[in-house]
Design goal:
With 515 residues, this protein is mainly α. It has three domains: 2-202, Orthogonal Bundle (Clc chloride channel); 218-422, Clc chloride channel (Orthogonal Bundle), CATH 1.10.3080.10; 430-509, Alpha-Beta Plaits (2-Layer Sandwich), CATH 3.30.70.1450. Helices cover 63% and strands 5% of the residues. The chain contains 18 helices and four strands. The chain has helices at residues 2-45, 51-72, 81-89, 96-111, 120-137, 142-161, 164-175, 181-202, 222-250, 262-274, 283-292, 298-319, 328-348, 357-373, 376-387, 393-409, 415-424, 498-509, and strands at 436-442, 463-470, 473-475, 488-494. The protein has a four-stranded antiparallel beta sheet. Helix 9 (222-250) packs across helix 16. The two termini are 25 Å apart.
């Protein structure tokens, strides 16, 4: 019976991947076509300035439509990743259909304009909404429904980047925090199907085809340490700026908050008019860097530094406006610029061969991502999949580790955890509903639960240790059962208090656990 249930769940996961691939494929295609439209308008504006009036009216209309979607359903705004995290924790209940179509249309309208925003977070939320819809349509249990939401999230990210391993790993490492076989098997299956669908729509090619054929010498690894330190510092600065700008927006009284998007859209006009290359999520700029770094001199360093400053400031202003959009690719773009700037400076100082600057661009993308998102394994695999090369896993890991360590020492937090916590705010105490739900907890070697009897642990109220999964077997515990390192505890909790139990168990374990 259990095998039949797991096979049925896998079949539903494959369906989630298929539907997500189709929807995210439409999403990407819409952004691609609309981006070409806006670039054409700005090109025409160089010949006739009156086109700027049409552009301004069009951008204002985009801001009003997308803002109205957010006004109708606030969780359509932003990337959607914090919402998915809270859903999987049991701290947030959402309707999937209102999110799906609003995020699809709003995301296409906003991201295609050229704002420094990306489609990856919205793609993840689109997939999660599809997973939720399939779970509800198949009348799945709450536990399996969450697995399908996680599967949809992994599928969405895989379809956005063309990176199925990274899509699944990101959801496991950063969003769901659950590495159980049921979760990773279904998430990976859905991600592969979604990637297959999108590959047939757009062709099978890597997202960032950056060619680097020179091994980074071990004697020059000290560059990786310095670059990692810089990335950690700038990553921490970016997160600080992101939350500070939210406070500035909150002080605006001339506009209702659902129209804050008009501010970055207005600022976009001169940027897109004079520097169209640096607009959008950033993939066009990243792919232009190999040619740009062939030109040495401090003038190129200054130009790239200017691009970075514009990107970091305008990315923050754009994202904090609350428009439907993400920051994945903008983060990678800023990392690439930092790597290029550092590399060219070292070339000017005769401390680095010019042929290795492209290596640093790629390494820096992973490091900046690791510092901000705090998902180092995903960072390494993501860049490997997007660039399409396994040549330099060790340098990627070194830069990512150093950048993450610096952010940790500065007291940085994972950006999506911080956004989710800010969104949750002072949530009212949950009510006992009488409906039962499940929570899975892996027990790590440094957990306070190890070597303790169940009866000796102060479990949260309305919580029962139902099953212990140990060594491939399911044990029915009693009060005298001792918890071992490597166990997975299946807790039965009240459905209305799942989120609160989640937080209490985190404190009880004294380490972060899987939810």
């Amino acid at each position: 019976m259990r095998n039949h249930s797991e096979i049925k769940l896998l079949g539903q996961a494959l369906l989630v991947g298929l539907l997500t691939g189709i929807i995210v494929g439409i999403f990407r295609l819409g952004i691609e076509k609309m981006t070409s439209f806006w670039l054409r308008l700005f090109h025409l504006a160089h010949g006739n300035a009156w086109w700027l009036v049409i552009i301004a009216c069009g951008l204002a209309l985009v801001g009003i439509i997308a803002g109205y979607f957010v006004k109708q359903y606030p969780h359509v705004g932003g990337s959607g990743i914090p919402e998915v995290k809270l859903q999987l924790q049991g701290n947030l209940s959402l309707q999937w259909l209102p999110i799906l179509w609003r995020k699809l249309i709003g995301g296409i309208l906003v991201i295609s304009t050229g704002l420094f925003l990306g489609p990856e977070g919205p793609s993840l939320q689109l997939g999660a909404a599809i997973g939720q819809g399939v779970g509800e349509g198949c009348s799945q249990t709450k536990t399996n429904a969450r697995v399908l939401i996680a599967t949809g999230a992994a599928s969405g990210l895989a379809a956005a980047f063309g990176a199925p391993l990274s899509g699944a790993l990101f959801v496991l490492e950063e969003v769901f925090h659950n590495f159980s076989q049921r979760v990773w098997l279904n998430a990976l299956a859905g991600a592969m199907v979604a990637d297959f669908v999108v590959s047939n729509l757009f062709g099978q090619h890597v997202a960032l085809a950056l060619s680097y054929n020179h091994t980074f010498p071990i004697l020059l690894y000290w560059h990786l340490v310095f670059l990692g330190i810089i990335l950690g510092l700038l990553g921490y600065l970016y997160k600080t700026g992101l939350f500070s700008c939210k406070k500035l927006y909150a002080r605006i009284t001339l506009l209702p908050n659902w129209l804050y998007g008009l501010i970055p859209l207005a600022l976009l006009i001169p940027i897109a008019y004079y520097w169209p290359l640096i607009t959008g999520p950033g993939n066009r700029l990243i792919l232009s860097l190999p040619k740009m770094i062939t030109k040495t001199g401090w003038s190129m360093v200054g130009l790239l530094l200017f691009f970075y400053l514009v990107r970091i400031v305008f990315s923050i202003v754009s994202y904090d406006s609350g428009l439907p959009s993400g920051i994945f690719l903008p983060i990678l773009t800023m990392g690439a610029l930092i790597g290029a700037i550092y590399g060219l400076v070292m070339v000017q100082l005769h401390l680095l061969p010019q042929k290795l600057v492209i290596n640093l661009i790629i390494f820096a993308m992973a490091g900046y991502f690791a510092a901000i998102i705090r998902a180092p394994f995903t960072a390494v695999i993501l860049i490997t999949e997007m660039v399409g090369s396994l040549l330099h896993l060790m340098p990627l890991a070194v830069v990512s580790f150093v950048a993450l360590l610096v952010d940790e020492l500065l007291g940085g937090m994972p950006i999506y955890d911080s956004l989710a916590q800010a969104m949750l705010g002072k949530k009212k105490s949950a009510q006992v509903t009488g409906q039962r739900d499940q929570l899975t907890i892996p027990v790590y070697e440094n957990s306070d639960l190890v070597d303790r009897k169940i009866v000796d642990i102060n479990w949260p109220e309305h919580t029962l240790v139902k099953i212990i999964h140990r060594g491939g077997r399911d044990l029915i515990p009693n009060g005298q059962t001792k918890i071992n390192n490597g166990d997975s505890l299946i807790l039965e909790v009240d459905a209305g208090q799942r989120g609160q139990v989640y937080e209490k168990i985190k404190q009880l374990q004294a380490v972060e656990y899987d939810g």
